[in-house]
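Quick start: read one record
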Amino acid sequence: MVDLEAERREGGFDAVFVAVGAHLSKRVDIPARDAGPVVDAVSFLRGVAAGERPQVGRRVAVYGGGNTAMDAARTARRLGADEALIVYRRTREQMPAHEEEAEDAEREGVRINWLRTIKAFEGEQLQVEVMELDESGFPRPTGRYETLAADTVILALGQRTDTAFLENLPGVEFERDGTVRVSSSLMTGCPGVFAGGDMVPAERTVTVGVGHGKRAAREIDAWLAGGELGRPSKHPRVTFEMLNLWYFGDAAQRREPELGPSQRLEGFEEVRGGLDPDEASFEARRCLSCGNCCECDGCVGACPEDAVIKLGPGHRYRFDYDRCTGCRACYEQCPVHSIEMRPELA
């Protein structure tokens, strides 16, 4: 096991940023007698990506409802499985997978069994229990069982982060799911040890991980210099709902060419062909630039008092507060929400 404190001391590091990712598959104990293989989805997909071609049989069952489950089922079909079914204990509306992923899987012949949970795997038979939602929307067992056919079961129940190597660090605390508790600066309870990405409670996406890396660099720099930690971002946190998307609605999104379902299953060619250079350039220029001024001149046109002064390309605008009445016209029309309203000091 890694001794983080020893490595930090031997390397003479003042600060550490830990972001090892969630690479440990969650497991569940499924009684299996004389049954086919039970494998975890991450190892399965990693092996296929490395060039392996595992024998999965004609019928594959995938246990889970996330994007990884969809990937595993679609990959099984490409490996020659005649049937691929997904067993998920909640409803379609509750599944964590993106709707687009589920639709693509179904187009490729993957069946999804909602409100089901696997109880046993014996021979070539999979025993599943029918679930129902209680008053709070949580699935509960009904005592009714069904039998499905399967040669292989792939577990896609999510991943967890390996944080055990931090347990001996003084001051480090953990959340119930095993992730590390951090402050607004991403620093753990151990001074100088910062954590981000899948190591902390957050949405597990590449975008969030990249953001944590950038933020940690800024916070570590401030900590080493003895400055303020947890400083507010340069721009306000902008959510999708805050954007005025009508501003970007004049041109429809470019459609990528797409292989038909039968062609997809012939191999591991990309499902979508991608955009040509001109189309990709057009979409890149469409960037919503959330929280960052894109110099659209909307604020200039919206201000009834001529209080917004354009400073020229690349220099954005200046506000004449002697003329500004605080009517919020510029704030409300800004398509990327880069304008903040603050109370006037007495």
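The first strand starts at residue 16 and ends at 18.
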